Amino acid sequence: MMLILDPDLDEEKRKEIYNKIETMIREEGGEVLYIKDWGIREFAYPIRHKNVGFYSVWEFKSNSEIPNSLRSQMRLMKDIFRFMILKKKNVKSFKKRKGG
Q1: In a designed cystine with 4, which of 11, 53, 54, 98 is the match (CB 3.0 to 4.6 A)?
Q2: CB-neighbour burial class of residue 1 (10 A; exposed 0-12, middle 13-18, buried 19+)
Q3: pLDDT at res. 94
Q4: pLDDT by residue (tens digit) across 35-52?
Q5: What is the DSSP string of 86-98?
Q6: Is the pTM of this model over 0.85?
């Protein structure tokens, strides 16, 4: 999963969002394997009148229902600009990419 957060959030607020997401995953029987912060990156086009966002990449194990539950909950979080959840078999290794 990749998250793009509001770049103006302080570290405490970012950790609060991370804790909420981790709790959602764990309560549904999933497990967070790692979280890699990529930091602030520039957008190709403005999102919510901003030109940059704070990126993070997550890897987690879950049953097939957790991604749907996460999507519906994260859509309600105003500090999350964008997110994308993919099955690992459909993703090239993020570790090979710059910042990973």
Answers
A1: 53
A2: buried
A3: 54
A4: 999 999 999 999 999 999
A5: --GGGS--GGGST
A6: no
**CA dist., res. 70 & res. 85, Å (int):** 9
Specify the amino acid at residue 41: R
Residues in the chain: 100
Dihedral (C-alpha) 2, 78, 13, 11: value to the nearest 10 degrees? 50
